[in-house]
Design goal:
alpha+beta; 4-stranded mixed sheet; 7 strands; elongated
């Protein structure tokens, strides 16, 4: 895979000229009293222009951020093989590899099997399965880090801890396996059916960033695997890139 032009929502000065011109024209239609990105979708109707932005982003990569917790060998796996959408088999493979690498006991392995959302069921499964969840820009990692606390504090993700089968085992130890990690991924967001932006259209984050508004954020549910060649970096505590986010957990 060739890495083409990279677009970062938080850095309007670095946008390609055609993207910059398109967003600037739309930003000029936003009333001056709108200064918060969270208010923008309720003040200006840009939803219909989102597909035009997606077309401009075709053959380009959007820098995005996935919060997780990884063991050392999992860091290598992600760098090589990328990020996979959430499935029962993915969850069980991580459990099996942890057992094989002797980082969990057989009893803990059994508890993980019995406590995942796939075993326990529940409505939460339908909102997670078949997706990789990412922040479309880094600003929320600075301004609203608590939204990432579950992903950074629970090894294997919160999908593994859906029941109370841990009463006689130390679930806290298992949850703290590995280290927090921000996986920097490059996404093709040209297809809105694959790069699904939750809450509001992607274009709102671009316009809000261009206008230097507060609360610029975009969550992407990417409904396809992300290849290893699309993993730009993995940031962990002790690295400058991770430590710039002062309120993220360090352990």
């Amino acid at each position: 895979m060739s890495i083409g032009e990279i677009v970062e929502i938080d850095r309007p000065a670095g946008w390609p000229e055609d993207v910059k011109a398109y967003i600037q024209a739309l930003a000029e239609t936003v009333p001056d009293h709108v200064t918060d990105g969270g208010d923008l979708p309720f003040e200006v109707d840009l939803e219909g222009r989102d597909i035009e932005l997606r077309d401009l982003l075709a053959d380009r990569w959007l820098r995005s951020f996935h919060a997780t917790r990884l063991l050392d060998y999992e860091v290598e796996d992600v760098q090589t093989s990328g990020l996979r959408v959430l499935t029962k088999s993915l969850v069980e493979e991580r459990q099996d590899h942890a057992l094989a690498n002797e980082v969990i006991t057989r009893a803990e392995h059994a508890a993980l099997r019995d406590s995942s959302v796939f075993t326990a069921g529940g409505k939460s499964v339908q909102y997670r399965v078949g997706k990789v969840c990412l922040a479309g820009n880094a600003q929320p990692l600075h301004d609203h880090p608590y939204g990432f606390s579950h992903q950074l504090s629970n090894w294997g993700g919160e999908a593994q801890y859906a029941t109370s089968v841990w009463e006689h085992l130390d679930s806290a130890r298992v949850k703290r396996l590995g280290r927090p990690a921000i996986v920097v991924a490059l996404l093709d967001v040209s297809d809105p059916a694959v790069a699904v932006v939750t809450s509001h259209a992607l274009i709102y984050a671009f316009v809000a960033s261009h206008r230097r508004m507060a609360n610029v954020g975009s969550q992407i549910d990417f409904e396809a695997d992300i290849a290893g060649a699309q993993i730009e970096a993995i940031w962990q505590p002790g690295q400058q890139e991770y430590d710039q986010f002062e309120r993220l957990p360090r352990a």
